[in-house]
Amino acid sequence: MRWLPRGLAARIIVLTLLALVISQFVSYLSFRSGREGFIEHMISDYMSQSVISVDQSLSYARPGHQADLVRSLSNRAVRFDLVGRPPHCATHNADSRRYARDFAERLAVSPSRVRVCVGRGLMHTKHRPERMAVQLAFRRDDGRWLDVRQRLPGQIDHWAHESLRNLLITLALMIVAVIFASRRITRPLRDLASAAERFGRGERIEPIRERGSDEIKRTIIEFNRMHERIDRFVAERTRLVAALAHDLRTPITALRLRLEFLPDDDNTRAMSATLEDMAHMSEAALTFMREEASAEATRRMDLTALVDAVAEDYRAADAPVRFEPGERITLVCRPVAIRRALRNVIDNALAYGEIAEVTLTANADQVVIEIADHGPGIAETAMDSVFDAFVRLETSRSRETGGVGLGLAIARSVVRAHGGDITLANRPEGGLVVRMALPRARL
């Protein structure tokens, strides 16, 4: 249903109020049917009996006194009159013709001898000249018309105004009640959505309070269990890798000592260089895992200032890094982690692309940091593999031409921990562009 609002609380309010309006409309149709039935009952029973009785009584009265006799029967609610011509009926519609036809059939006379009107202005009174009334006129055998006008009860006359007033009052009360109830019902869902959004950005969250309906409470319970299992899995993985990296120090140190007792030749120098690479990779992995396990708190940061500060550090060291600060862009993130990811990507651009051009853009949903270089680019088949740990496209494995292959892996880990993603693309004019997309907080 595209016409429904997107929010659950708004949908509950709209559907409840729609149901209320439909029920009021049904009540109106029911009243309209009852009103018509009441008028028809009044004409067919009370007024028809009155007309028949008065017509029969007039046959016993002297002609000169018949009009006075008829008028003497009138009171505040009903008026009788004897006139020489049929009354003019401004409200002569299909219902009036049906009432007249039914009355004519009841008396077994031609419908032309009956006039029925229902509307306002039929009975003028000093205080209520527009009161609803029913007019029934019957042509007697002598050619004169017996005119009977019956005022309808005030409840029917003022139903439209009273029903509108009652509808507005009911709608106002229902809006307040439904808003309160819907917000109370959806509050646990809002808490769950907020926790899921913060957890997706890598923040540490507390277990959500289990409340609400059975279905909502069950969902919260399962989310808390999932969160606990994921935290436990990540912690165990981090401890395992950190332990492996730490334990590698002992055999590497032992091998270094053994190399000291071997002759200094090409083989020993090659083995020594390999051990240095292993030691460097081990230390890098251990540092990465330590930082992964650190509990840096998220906070709202001026991302424009952070990127500009990183670029200024490179420019201070005469590194060709370009960044033009624009409007102030804020982001809820872990600043140290974002700074490290940004430095890793810039280092990679400087190592293989000679220059790093940094741009920062944002919209309502996300913030995008792009780092472009002027290097040879990367083959399309290697776009994904460069994010794997210890993978380097430069085959010399020299630390002078690159690191140990953890830079982009760490950058992707940081970006994805914030709920975003990092992608690569070759530039048409040459070079590589790294795109770091970070979502903005929605709740």
List keywords for this structure.
four-stranded antiparallel beta sheet; single chain; 443 residues; alpha+beta
Question: Would you summarize the structure shown here?
Answer:
The protein has 443 residues and is an alpha+beta fold. It has helices at 8-58, 66-71, 94-107, 154-157, 159-200, 214-247, 249-260, 266-293, 303-316, 335-353, 407-417, and strands at 78-83, 114-120, 132-139, 145-151, 299-302, 321-323, 330-333, 356-362, 366-372, 421-426, 432-439. It is built from 11 helices and 11 strands.
Q: Can you walk me through this structure?
A:
This protein has 443 residues and is of the alpha+beta class. The protein is 53% helix and 15% strand. The protein is built from eleven helices and eleven strands. It has helices at 8-58, 66-71, 94-107, 154-157, 159-200, 214-247, 249-260, 266-293, 303-316, 335-353, 407-417, and strands at residues 78-83, 114-120, 132-139, 145-151, 299-302, 321-323, 330-333, 356-362, 366-372, 421-426, 432-439. The strands form three sheets. The chain has a five-stranded mixed β-sheet with strand order 6-8-9-11-10. A four-stranded antiparallel β-sheet has the order 1-4-3-2. Strands 5-7 form a two-stranded antiparallel ribbon. Helix 1 (8-58) packs parallel to helix 3 and helix 10 runs antiparallel to helix 11 (407-417). The two termini are 25 Å apart. 18% of the residues are buried. Mean pLDDT is 78; it is low at 395-401.
